[in-house]
Specification:
The chain has about 160 residues and is an all-alpha fold. It is about 60% helix and about 0% strand. The protein is globular.
């Protein structure tokens, strides 16, 4: 039971990690990796389109999140510290959720039609919040750094 609780806590804690890293690292000292993700923001289209290339420098952040999860899993299995395995599963599940929502549903980087068809009210709100993030007035005017948690106003039509 404690392991499942660790999995759930680590999953939801990753939203805070993603928010803080996005705000202070991606829009901070590693902006040079993240800026190509915002390159087409001036077009104001839905879905928010990124560059027409397969990969962006921004995709390097995948490694920043994947490596700790992989290390926790290796250490957990190697030393039979299974709570670490469950934490790594929570991190991995958040990464998978982020990939599906951010890269497929919002940015349409992979063409998987059934994932984009008729999104529910929560997914529509996520898309609105993320779209607002991509249309700032200037570099210091970015909002909605998280993915799953954002202001309530995006739930309104």
């Amino acid at each position: 039971m404690i392991n499942i609780l660790l999995l759930i806590i680590s999953y939801f804690f990753m939203e805070f990690v993603a928010w803080s890293n996005h705000k202070y690292i991606m829009h901070g000292f590693l902006w040079k990796w993240h800026k190509d993700h915002h390159r087409k923001d001036h077009q104001h289209t839905l879905p928010v389109k990124t560059e027409d290339k397969r990969f962006e420098k921004n995709d390097l952040f995948f490694l920043i999140y994947a490596i700790p999860a992989i290390l926790l899993m290796i250490i957990g299995f190697s030393f039979q510290l299974f709570p670490l395995v469950y934490i790594s599963i929570g991190i991995t599940l958040y990464g998978f959720t982020y990939f599906i929502i951010h890269d497929i549903i919002i940015h349409n980087r992979l063409q998987i039609p059934f994932l984009r068809k008729n999104p529910n009210f929560y997914i529509r709100a996520i898309i609105k919040a993320h779209t607002a993030h991509h249309w700032p007035k200037n570099k210091k005017d970015f909002h909605n750094y998280g993915l799953l948690v954002f202001p309530f106003r995006y739930f309104k039509s």
